[in-house]
Write a structure and sequence with these properties.
Layout lengths: L2 E5 L10 E8 L7 E3 L4 H6 L4 H7 L9 E5 L8 E9 L9 H14 L5 E5 L5 H14 L29 E5 L6 H25 L7 H15 L2 E5 L1 H7 L2 H7 L7 E7 L7 E12 L19 H16 L4 E11 L11 E3 L5 E3 L7 H13 L5 E6 L3 H7 L4 E5 L2 H14 L3 E3 L17 E2 L7 H10 L7 E6 L5 E2 L10 E2 L4 H12 L5
Parallel strand pairs: 1-7, 2-5, 2-6, 6-7, 10-11, 10-14, 13-17, 14-18, 15-16
Antiparallel strand pairs: 2-3, 4-5, 8-9, 9-11, 12-13, 15-18, 19-20
Helix pairs in contact: 3-4, 4-5, 5-9, 6-9, 8-10, 9-14, 12-14
C-alpha cells in the first residue's frame, strides 16, 4: 500500500522522484492549459512559461491527460508530471472533489514503479485533501497476488520484464499536517480507499480460491481485526433455519453456501443500518447455463458482498456513531445433478414460495433470504447491493448503478450519498404494473417476469422480502462493479469496489441523523 503524508515543505527542496501538478482547461477563445492552484512555486521556477511548455507538448488540461517534462533547474526532483483536471471551477468555487480524486488516480497510475512523488494539486480545504488521498491510493492499486513478482518469462530476476510495483510514497503538498480537519480527512480517505482496494482484491480473486467457505473465513478474519461481531451459518444451519433461497442456489455446487452476519455497534448510535450483499462467488447460470462468452468475468458476481464487507469494516475504522449490520449471502451457482431446475419451487426463509423459472436469476434468491433475515432486526433502513441484472447495464451503461426503493425520500438520500462520494448513480422506478408478470400458478411468486424492464422487475421481486414498514433501497451495480476495459481515472481494469463509498457515506449520513 502506498504511504501517504501531508507536508508544507518547499517543493524545490523536496527529495522525490516526481512532482505532480494540476492543469486545467483554459477559458475560450484561447483555451490553452492553465496551471492549477497548488503548483505556483513550480510554475514560477519555469519563469512563468510552464503553461506554454505544456501546450507545446500537446497538453490541453483535459481530464485524464498526463504530460511529463523535466523539472526546472534547482529542483531536487528530476521530473514534473502534469495531470489534466478538466474545466476550471466557476469564480469563487473550489475544485470538485471527484475531479481531484480522478486526477490523483491518473497520476498515481502514471507513476507505477516510482518510489516517491510529491502531489502539488489544489488542496483548498480538508475535503480536497481527503479526495486526493483517496485518488492516490485507488489509482496506485494493482492485483498481483497470482503473478511471479520480479521475474521474466524465463524466471530471470531483475530483467526489464520484471513487474513494477505501485507508487511507494505520496506526499501531499499544501496540506496542513497539524490541522485536525486536514488530518482527519486524509485518514478517512486512506481508510476508505484501503477498504475499497480490499473489495477489489476479493472481486479479482479466482473462483477456485474464493468460494463461500473461504469468503466467510476472510470475513471472520476482518471481523477479528476490527472488533466486529460475526456469525457464519453453514449449510447445516441454513437447512435448519429454512433458508431455501440460498440453499436452492448453492445446491448445484460441491462448495456449499454460507450466510455471514457482521455487526458493528457504537455506544453512541441512534440509528441502525443493514446492508445486504449478493455474494455469488461464481455464476455459471446453473441449469439455465450462460452462453459462451458470458462466463469469463462471473467471478465478479460477489461484488455486492465485497462492498458490504468493506463498508462495515470502514464504518468500524472510522468509529461512526451508527450501528451497521452486514449480511453476506454467499453461494456458487453451478449446474449438476443436484442443482435447482427451472420449474422447481423453493420455500424461502420468509415462508413465501418461489417458482424458479430461470436459474440464472439466482442473485435475487439469495438476497431474498438475506433481506428477510435483516428485516427481523427491525433496522431503520436496509440497502441491498448486487450485480443483479444485465438489463441495468443496458439501461445505464457500464459506469452508473441504478437505485430503487420503497420510499422516494430514501431513494433520493441514497442517490445523494452516491453523488457526495463521487459514484455515478441514477434513480430508477418500481412500476407496479410489472409485478403481475411474476405471478405464478404454482407458487406465491416466480423469480422472473417481463423481459422488458428486467432490472425493475428484479427490484420488485426483492421488495416482496422486505419486512413490513421497513425502509429499503436496492442498488444494482452490474455495470460499474467490474471494468472490462482500460483503466481510467482511479479505476483499474477488473474489480472496482463500486458501492463501498456510497454505503459508507450513507452510514455517515445516518450518524448525522439523516436516515428516515
Amino acid at each position: 500500500m502506498t504511504d501517504l503524508s501531508l507536508s508544507t515543505a518547499a517543493v524545490a527542496g523536496l527529495r522525490a522522484d516526481a512532482i505532480v501538478v494540476g492543469v486545467a482547461k483554459g477559458a475560450q477563445p484561447d483555451g490553452g492549459p492553465v496551471v492549477a492552484a497548488g503548483a505556483e512555486a513550480v510554475a514560477e521556477a519555469y519563469d512563468g512559461s510552464l503553461a506554454g511548455l505544456l501546450e507545446t507538448l500537446g497538453a490541453s488540461g483535459a481530464e485524464g491527460e498526463v504530460t511529463k517534462l523535466p523539472a526546472p533547474a534547482g529542483f531536487k526532483a528530476p521530473l514534473v508530471v502534469a495531470v489534466g483536471l478538466g474545466a476550471q471551477p466557476e469564480k469563487d468555487e473550489v475544485w470538485d472533489s471527484e475531479a481531484l480524486r480522478r486526477a490523483a488516480g491518473v497520476a498515481a497510475r502514471a507513476l507505477t514503479g516510482v518510489a516517491k512523488a510529491a502531489f502539488a494539486l489544489p488542496l483548498e480545504d480538508a475535503e480536497a485533501a481527503g479526495a486526493v488521498a483517496e485518488g492516490v491510493l485507488l489509482g496506485a492499486y494493482s492485483y498481483d497476488a497470482y503473478k511471479e513478482s520480479g521475474k521474466d518469462a524465463k524466471g530471470a530476476k531483475g530483467s526489464k520484464a520484471a513487474k513494477k510495483g505501485p507508487l511507494g510514497e505520496a506526499v501531499l503538498l499544501g496540506g496542513k499536517p497539524r490541522d485536525r480537519a486536514f488530518k482527519a480527512a486524509v485518514e478517512r480517505g486512506a481508510a476508505l480507499a484501503e477498504e475499497m482496494n480490499h473489495a477489489r482484491d476479493l472481486i479479482n480473486m479466482p473462483p477456485n480460491d474464493l468460494f463461500p467457505a473461504t469468503f466467510a473465513e476472510i470475513a471472520q478474519k476482518a471481523a477479528k481485526e476490527h472488533g466486529l461481531k460475526v456469525t457464519v451459518l453453514d449449510e447445516k444451519a441454513l437447512t435448519k433455519g429454512g433458508y431455501g433461497g440460498i440453499l436452492g442456489v448453492g445446491n448445484g455446487s460441491t462448495r456449499p453456501p454460507r450466510l455471514v452476519k457482521l455487526s458493528y455497534t457504537s455506544s453512541k448510535a441512534k440509528k441502525h443500518l443493514a446492508f445486504v450483499g449478493k455474494g455469488i462467488t461464481y455464476d455459471s447460470g446453473g441449469i439455465s447455463l450462460k452462453p459462451a462468452g458470458h462466463n469469463e468475468t462471473m467471478k465478479c458476481d460477489m461484488s455486492g458482498a465485497a462492498a458490504v464487507l468493506s463498508a462495515v469494516v470502514t464504518a468500524a475504522r472510522l468509529g461512526l456513531e451508527v450501528n451497521v449490520t452486514g449480511w453476506l449471502c454467499l453461494a456458487e451457482n453451478m449446474p449438476s445433478g443436484s442443482a435447482t431446475r427451472p420449474g422447481d419451487v423453493l420455500r424461502m426463509y420468509s415462508g413465501k414460495t418461489v417458482e424458479v423459472l430461470n436459474t440464472d436469476a439466482e442473485g435475487r434468491l439469495v438476497l431474498a433470504d438475506g433481506l428477510w433475515a435483516a428485516s427481523q432486526e427491525k433496522p431503520d433502513a436496509i440497502v441491498d447491493v448486487a450485480t443483479l441484472t444485465g438489463a441495468m447495464m443496458i439501461a445505464l451503461g457500464s459506469r452508473t448503478f441504478g437505485i430503487m426503493a420503497n420510499d422516494d425520500g430514501f431513494r433520493a438520500l441514497v442517490h445523494d450519498a452516491a453523488e457526495e462520494s463521487g459514484e455515478d448513480a441514477w434513480q430508477m422506478p418500481l412500476p407496479e404494473h410489472l409485478r403481475a408478470g411474476m405471478d405464478s400458478a404454482t407458487a406465491d411468486i416466480a423469480n422472473i417476469g417481463e423481459r422488458m424492464g428486467g432490472g425493475l422487475v428484479a427490484g420488485l421481486f426483492l421488495r416482496e422480502f422486505v419486512g413490513e414498514g421497513i425502509t429499503w433501497a436496492h442498488v444494482d451495480l452490474a455495470g460499474p462493479a467490474f471494468n472490462e476495459g482500460k483503466p481510467f481515472g482511479y479505476t483499474p481494469k477488473g474489480g472496482t469496489g463500486s458501492g463501498v463509498r456510497t454505503l459508507v457515506r450513507l452510514a455517515e449520513r445516518a450518524a448525522e441523523g439523516d436516515v428516515l
